[in-house]
Amino acid sequence: MASPVDQFQIKTIGPSLNVAGMDISFTNSAAFMILATVVVGVFLTQSMSGRHLVPTRFQSMAELSYEFIANMVRENVGSEGRAYFPLIFTLFMFILAGNLLGMIPYSYTFTSQIIVTFAMAITVFIGVTIIALLKHGTHFFSYFLPEGAPIVLAPLLIVIEVLSYLSRPISLSVRLFANMMAGHTMMKVFGGFVVALGIFGVAPLAVLVALTAFEVLVAVLQAYVFAILTCIYLHDAIHLH
C-alpha cells in the first residue's frame, strides 16, 4: 500500500530543466496552480458574460463571491481597503480553487506545500509592511510599542511585538499548509483501510465520507482565514493601532 504522504510528492512533468544549477522543471504543483488560475478565470468570465437580469446559478455564485470579499474588506480594513480588494479577492479565489481541486481523486493539492503557502504569505507580509512604511513613514515603528504602555516595560514589549510581527508569514503559511496536508493524509489513511478491509470496510467508508465533507468545509474555511488575516494585517498597516 502506498504511503499516505506519497500524494504530496512534487513530480516533474516533461523534460528536466536546469539553469545555473537550479532545477526549474515544470512540475505537477505548477500545473495545478495554472489550472486553478484558469478555472477561476473561466468561472468569473463565463458567469458574468451574459449579465442576466435574473442571475444564473454561476452568475449568482460569482456575485456572492464578489460581495462576500467586498464586505470582508469593508468591515475589516475600512473604506481605505477598497484599493486592495483585487489582491484579497485574487488570493481567496486562488487558494479556494487550489483547495477544491485537490479534493478530486488523483489530483494534486499545491496548498499542501509549505513553499507555496509561504511564498503567498511572505508576499502579503512584505507588501503590507511597504504600505505601512509609505503611509506612516518612521511613525510606523510606534506600532511595536502599544499606546499607554509603561516606558519601563518598553524594551520587553518591543521585543515581543517585533517577534509577533515577524512571525506573521510563518503562522499564515503553516496554518494553510498544515490543515490541507493533515486532512488529505487522514483521508488517504481511511481510504487505505476501506480497500484493505474489502466488504468489512463499511465503517471506514462511512468515516471517509464524513471526512470528505469535512475537508471540503476546511478547504473553504482556510481560504477565508487566509483572506481575512490579510485584511487584518492591512488594517494594522493603514491604521496602526
Provide the fold topology:
Layout: E1 18-19, E2 22-23, H1 28-49, H2 57-76, H3 85-101, H4 114-136, H5 154-166, H6 168-197, H7 202-239
Antiparallel strand pairs: 1-2
Helix pairs in contact: 1-2, 1-3, 2-3, 2-7, 3-7, 4-6, 4-7, 6-7
Regions with little confidence, pLDDT below 50 for 5+ residues: none
Give a short account of the largest sheet: 2 strands, antiparallel
Mean pLDDT: 88
Q: Quote the distance from N terminus to C terminus.
A: 53 Å
Q: Please give the share of residues in helix.
A: 55-70%
3D architecture notes:
There is one protein chain. The termini are far apart. The radius of gyration is 21 Å and the shape is globular. Helix 6 (168-197) runs antiparallel to helix 7. It is built from seven helices and two strands, in the order ββααααααα. It has one domain. The longest helix is centred in the last third of the chain and has 38 residues, at 202-239. It is mainly α and 241 residues long. Strands 1-2 form a two-stranded antiparallel sheet. The mean pLDDT is 88.
